[in-house]
Amino acid sequence: xxxxxxxYITGFYKISLITKLGGKxxxxxxxxxxxxxxxxxxxxxxxxxxxxxxxxxxxxxxIIHPDFLQGYPLARKIKNNGFFSYAINETLHLSEQEKLTLxxxxxxxxxx
Length: 112
What we know:
The chain is an alpha+beta fold. It has helices spanning 66-69, 73-77, 96-111; strands at 2-4, 7-9, 13-22, 25-27, 30-32, 38-42, 47-50, 56-64, 92-93.
């Protein structure tokens, strides 16, 4: 991860469930407001970060280094997944049931 003014460049894939965002989030070349219950995908070499009026974030993130995927078919397929491209500049807004499902998956991973 390389630091930049107002953000950083990722070196990994990241899937984040945002339960509270304090301020605006830099995603690519713009700043966006993400609602509670949004999910954000970032890929290696993307620019992400926060804004000056930061008031703390809450949520869950799954971080995957690209080397972890090497040797698996997913290593080739993941690059074609539109979720990991900031050309798509909106997050996915989740229903309450979808949010509970994702929280269950995060908790399962954390416990195992």
